[in-house]
Design brief:
single chain, 317 residues, alpha/beta, six-stranded antiparallel β-sheet, five-stranded parallel β-sheet, 9 helices, elongated
Length: 317
C-alpha cells in the first residue's frame, strides 16, 4: 500500500487547469449505487467535453468517516481494490484524502476549499444520502444550494433498487455476515472477496491429500459467515475452482479466524508467498467439528465435488 499511497500523493501534485466533474462519496464496495453516482459523472462529463474539457474526478477518503465518530464499520473492499475498480471505470483522478484534513470544515468551507479552490468543479455528483460538513450535518439539498452560489451544477443520484432491495453498503455487509453471498454479489455487481499473500499453515491438509492455501483476511474486512464456500481463485494469470473455508479449524483445535482454500485441480508447486485472489460464489455448508481427520478428509473431498458442480452450473446445486 505504500506504493499506492505514493501514487495518490503524486497525482494530487498535478494541476488541472480546466474545470472538473466530481463524484463525492466514500464508495466502500463500489456497489451498484456507487457506480450509478460515478457513471452519472462520467456520462455528464463526456457530454460536456464536446464543448469543454472537464477532468473526471472521484473524491473519497482513506477511511470511512464513521470511525471518527466512534463507529466500527467493516470494509467491503480494500483501498487498493477500490482504487483499481474506480480507475478502470474511466476516471482521470482518484483522490483519497485523510478525513481529518476536512472534518472540521463547515459545509460552505468544504464547497469553497475543496470543490471550488482545489478541483475547480463545474459539475458535482453525489448519492441521495450524502452528508458533509462538520459533524455531517449538511445533506445533498444543502450541497445543491451552496454549489449554486458558485455556479456549480449538482446532480443527486437516486437510490438503486435490485430485487426490491435498496442497494447499500449496510445491506451488503449484512448479506456477507449471514452467508447470503449470492445476494451480496448481485448488489455489488461483482464477486465479493479479497486478495492476500499465501502463508504456510500446519500442513494438516497435505496429510489428507487436500493441501490448502492459507491467508489472513485483510484488516477490517467484513467477515463472512463461518463456513465453506464455492470460490473462484486467481493466482497469477490462472483461475481455479476453490473450496474456501472461512473461520476457525474446530477439528484441529485452531480458533484463529482465517481463510483456507483447497484447489481440487491444482497439482503443481507450493504457493507460499504468492498472492491469491479469492472470490466467494456460493455458501455450501456451515463449519463444523468432525470426529476425526479421516471424516474431515472425506467431507472436504465432497465439498470439492460440489464446488465443481456449482461452477459448472453457474448456480448452487
Amino acid at each position: 500500500m505504500k506504493e499506492h499511497s505514493s501514487k495518490i500523493k503524486n497525482e494530487e501534485k498535478k494541476e488541472y487547469p480546466n474545470s472538473s466533474g466530481v463524484a463525492l462519496g466514500f464508495f466502500d464496495g463500489i456497489h451498484l449505487g456507487h457506480k450509478a453516482v460515478i457513471n452519472a459523472m462520467l456520462s455528464a462529463v463526456e457530454e460536456e467535453n464536446e464543448k469543454d474539457s472537464l477532468a473526471k474526478i472521484v473524491y473519497t477518503f482513506q477511511k470511512n468517516p464513521a470511525y471518527l465518530f466512534g463507529k466500527s464499520v467493516e470494509i467491503i473492499t480494500t483501498n487498493e481494490e477500490r482504487y483499481n475498480i474506480i480507475k478502470d471505470m474511466g476516471v482521470d483522478r482518484v483522490v483519497e484524502d485523510d478525513f481529518t484534513s476536512v472534518m472540521n470544515f463547515s459545509p460552505r468551507e468544504f464547497v469553497e476549499k475543496v470543490l471550488v479552490q482545489r478541483f475547480n468543479a463545474k459539475k458535482v455528483f453525489c448519492g441521495f444520502n450524502y452528508h458533509f460538513g462538520k459533524g455531517g450535518t449538511a445533506d445533498s439539498g444543502e450541497l445543491t444550494r451552496l454549489c449554486s452560489l458558485y455556479g456549480i451544477e449538482v446532480t443527486v443520484v437516486p437510490p438503486v433498487v435490485m430485487e426490491e432491495i435498496t442497494v447499500s453498503s449496510t445491506e451488503i455487509r449484512n448479506f456477507v455476515r449471514n452467508g447470503e453471498i449470492e445476494k451480496a454479489n448481485i448488489l455489488l455487481d461483482r464477486k465479493f472477496g479479497f486478495s492476500a499473500v499465501i502463508e504456510e499453515g500446519n500442513h494438516i491438509g497435505r496429510l489428507m491429500n487436500t493441501p490448502t492455501i492459507n491467508q489472513k483476511l485483510p484488516k477490517g474486512l467484513v467477515v463472512p459467515r463461518f463456513g465453506v464456500y464455492t470460490s473462484l481463485v486467481t493466482i497469477g494469470d490462472k483461475c481455479y475452482t476453490g473450496v474456501t473455508n472461512i473461520g476457525v479449524k474446530p477439528t484441529i483445535g485452531d480458533y484463529l479466524p482465517l481463510s483456507e482454500t483447497w484447489l481440487p485441480d491444482y497439482k503443481e508447486k507450493d504457493l507460499y508467498g504468492e498472492v491469491a485472489d479469492i472470490r466467494l460464489l456460493y455458501f455450501q455448508r456451515d463449519e463444523r467439528k468432525f470426529d476425526n481427520i479421516k471424516a474431515l478428509e472425506e467431507q472436504i473431498k465432497k465439498d470439492g465435488e460440489k464446488a465443481k458442480i456449482n461452477i459448472a452450473k453457474g448456480r448452487k446445486s
